[in-house]
Each structure stands twice: as C-alpha cells, then as structure tokens.
Amino acid sequence: MTLPKLLAPALALAGATLLLADHKKASGYERFVREIRHELVMLPYYGVFDHLAYKVDGYNVTLLGQVTRPTLKSSAEQVVRDIEGVQKVENKIEVLPLSPNDDRLRLALYRAIYGHSALNRYALQAIGPIHIIVKNGNVTLEGVVATESDKNIAGIQAKGVSGVFSVTSNLRVEKLPEK
C-alpha cells in the first residue's frame, strides 16, 4: 500500500452523505457539493471527537452529525450558508452533552484506538479518519479506514476501554480504484 492510498481517508469527510438528485451530471453542481465538504473539514475546531455529515437536495443542504462544542455547530451552518448557490441550510447537528466522564472516555478511546500498532498510522493525519463520538458512555465510531481488519481492530479496542457501555461501529472500508 502506498502512502497516497493511506492518506485517502483523510480526504473524505467521515460519513458524508450526498444526495445529488438529478443535478449529478452538472460539473458546477459537483463543484458545489465538493465545496460544502471542503468548508466543513476546514473548520478550525473540527476534530476526531466530532462527526459532521451532510445531505444535498438540489441547492438545499441539511447538516447532520454530533459535535462537542456548540460553536462548531453554528460555525458549520455559517460556512455552508456563505457558499455561493446555497438556498437553504437546515442544521440538525447535535451538540453532545457536557460530561467529565465522557471526556475521560474520549481520551481513553483515542489512546486505545490510535495507540494500537495497526492503527497508529491514522494518527499522523491532520484529522484522524476514525471519529470517536461519546454520548453518555455510549460510543459510536464514524469514518473511513483502509481495510476490514482496521475496522475490526478499532471496534475491539473501543470495546476494551473501561467505562464504555456500548460501541457502535459505523466505520466504512475505503474502496480503492480498480486497476
């Protein structure tokens, strides 16, 4: 596996769902959708403990996901609203509750997942592709990994952290272009 293939998950916004309707063939529309993704991943406080997703229907955008900071929710809405062509933004991003226990779990989960020898290469990316969402002790893993093995290891590592009530893995395996 070459280095560019390893970096590919960093280029994908974890969990980004695109509903392109009938406008899919229009290159201007595809650029419009790519710009939404770009603006979201460039948010300054977007990190591994947040998950942003979006749906596009025509030129209406629905923001989805979970964030640890209320300011990230409003910033995401603002940057999308400022994109030329956006007609309407519906912000369904959930702000996770403040919890010292969840904060402790986030750090323990980060260490368990990104500290594992098979997964530590993902920690080298600006925003790790495995997003760790913790809500009231329940964990959801979101994002894209290179192999099925990486997906399984991340789930096993998360389940092994003390204090975690449940783990849901929504990790997807990156589809490499066919040769």
How would you sum up this structure, described in words?
By secondary structure, the protein is an alpha/beta fold. The protein has two domains: 3-95, no CATH class; 100-173, Histidine-containing Protein, Chain: A, CATH 3.30.1340. It contains five helices and seven strands. α5 links the parallel β6 and β7. α4 (100-114) crosses α5. 29% of the residues are buried. Residues 1-26 have low confidence and may be disordered.
Structural class: alpha/beta
Low-confidence residue ranges: 1-26
Task: Give average pLDDT, whole number.
Answer: 86
The total strand number stands at 7
The main β sheet shows up as:
4 strands, mixed
Radius of gyration: 17 Å
Number of domains: 2
Helicity range of the residues? 25-40%
Distance between the termini: 14 Å
Strand fraction: 15-25%
The ordered H/E elements are: HHEEHEEHEEHE
